[in-house]
Design goal:
This protein is of the alpha/beta class. It is 31% helix and 17% strand. The structure holds NADP nicotinamide-adenine-dinucleotide phosphate.
């Protein structure tokens, strides 16, 4: 499997977790100096995740992709939050299972959130099997918060850790676990951790979630506040071009 944004704080953990889970793992990074970040046995590909030659190499033999790249800024949000998703879904020559990390609160309109949400929609439209994980606030966990909770509807919009917390390691574990779990397919959820024991198996937690709504291309209970009819023409065009690609 391939980790996009592998140099990032979640990406690095996702690479280690994927290797630990027994996946043949490729880390896609943009700076060759970051190659030493990964455990022995990681295949490293260096290049931009929007470049055709890089992607031909990175996607060779890959049947699972974890997207962990992301920005907090608005001015590069399209480039970071959306373009790699578009380029990779477009470049795939055979189906691959997708795990896409966006963010809790992504349906609260901001330029950064909207580009993440457009990435989510491309994945949902593609016909690929996928899971979309919207993590809560990183690293505010208390030491006894091991119990994972998956929420839907993206109703927590305070914009601070009162919305829910989750550790980077927990996020990496759920992203990687989703790739090999049929009950996680076509599901979108916010991920937080609460007081209690870790679940030994996430299958029942994934199974309890409502699948995504194919008609709206949003999460099942998401607010309808980014209507496709009001989207920029090129965004609509790119979505239509990748619709049911697989
Ligand atoms: N903080 C929170 O509580 C929280 C909660 C939920 C979601 N999030 C989301 O998490 C994301 C940040 O994740 P993080 O903390 O892991 O950040 P990070 O450590 O800074 O990692 C960001 C990753 O994105 C990659 N990237 C940056 N610019 C890129 C570009 N132009 N093209 C492709 N990849 C690019 C980086 O690669 P390089 O090393 O090559 O630049 C790096 O791998 C944000 O999108 C944020 O909204 C944060």
């Amino acid at each position: 499997m391939l980790v996009v944004g592998a140099s990032g704080s979640i990406g690095r953990l996702a690479v280690a977790q994927a290797l630990h889970a027994g996946f043949t793992t490729t880390a896609l990074i943009r700076d060759a100096n970051q190659a030493s970040l990964f455990p022995e046995g990681t295949r490293v590909v260096v290049g931009e995740p929007t470049q055709a030659d890089t992607l031909a190499d990175a996607l060779d033999g890959v049947n699972g992709i974890v997207f962990t790249q992301g920005t907090y800024r608005d001015d590069d949000a399209e480039q970071v939050n959306y373009r790699p998703v578009h380029a990779i879904v477009d470049a795939l020559t055979s189906p691959a299972r997708i795990a896409l990390m966006t963010a809790l609160g992504v349906t609260k309109p901001t330029p950064g959130h909207d580009w993440k949400r457009r990435g989510e929609r491309l994945v949902r439209a593609s016909g690929l099997p996928y899971t979309i994980v919207r993590p809560g606030w990183f690293d505010y966990n208390e030491p006894d918060e091991h119990h994972l909770v998956m929420l839907q509807g993206d109703t927590r919009w305070a914009g601070n850790s009162s919305d829910g917390v989750v550790s980077r390691q927990q996020i990496a574990e759920v992203l990687v676990a989703s790739l090999a779990n049929d009950k996680a397919d076509h599901k979108t959820f916010e991920l937080v951790a609460e007081k209690g024991e870790a679940q030994p198996d996430l299958t029942p937690v994934f199974a309890a979630l409502q699948p995504d709504d194919e008609a709206t291309l949003d999460g099942p209970k998401d607010r309808n506040n980014l209507p496709p009819s009001a989207e920029p023409e090129r965004v609509v065009g790119e979505l239509d071009a990748l619709r049911d690609r697989f």
